[in-house]
Amino acid sequence: MTASVRDDLLAAGLVVFDRVGFEAATVAAIRTRARASNGSFFHAFGSKKELAGALFLEVLRHYHAAVLAALDPAPGAEQGIDRLIRAHLDWVVTSRREARYLFEISRSEWGEEVRDAQRAQNARLAEGIERWRAPLVASGELLPMTPGMFVSQLIGPAQIFCRAFLSGRDRADPRVEADTLIACAIRALRPLDRINRQ
Asked: Which residues form the HTH tetR-type domain (predicted)?
């Protein structure tokens, strides 16, 4: 089986899950969309659940790559906060189907098989952010806090708008709130005497 067949099945799974949800999705619908045989499907994935887990990891990798690209080259504190929030918002809007899958459709009960791989991917993201953040904390440009608290203050408020957008509760593009979200994050993450000194 070629990698392209596997990729076709993942892409088809994403479309089918987005349309009908995980529970209502069938292997037959995914195969039909991918134009793949039954044998090809089960050669690539043992089950719909296995495909869903592999898809979760693939989408998570794309999201993390978009976030980490915002830190290259390494920006200062305020510019980094700005870039990270905009990267998150842009990815959610431009990759809406993937974002819905990652944040709305995926479920922990069928993700147990990929939990270790997910932890490894999350650790790589955390390491990438920390490489940028740690020197800025050491120099007093960013407030000291745990990495988890930093990310929650950085992305948490933006994610509220993104979830409303992804679920359809709010049709407004969450990027319209970017400047306010960035200003609030700067106040939460930088020492007061360092704000706007860059």
From this structure: 3-63
135/25 Cα distance (integer angstroms):
47
Would you state the pLDDT for residue 3? 79
In the chain, ranges of CATH 1.10.10 domains: 1-46
CATH of 1-46, one of 1.10.3720, 2.60.40, 1.10.10, 1.20.120: 1.10.10
Polymer length in residues for the chain: 198
Q: How far is the C-alpha of 71 from the C-alpha of 79, rounded, in Å?
A: 9
Tens-digit pLDDT profile for residues 130-187: 999 999 999 999 999 999 999 999 999 999 999 999 999 999 999 999 999 999 999 9
Q: How many CB atoms lie within 10 A of CB 96?
A: 14
CA distances from 67 to 41, 80, 88, 102, 122 (A): 32, 11, 6, 14, 12
Report d(CA 179, CA 95) in Å as an integer. 21
Which pLDDT does position 77 carry in this prediction?
A: 97
**What CATH code would you report for 56-189?**
1.10.357.10
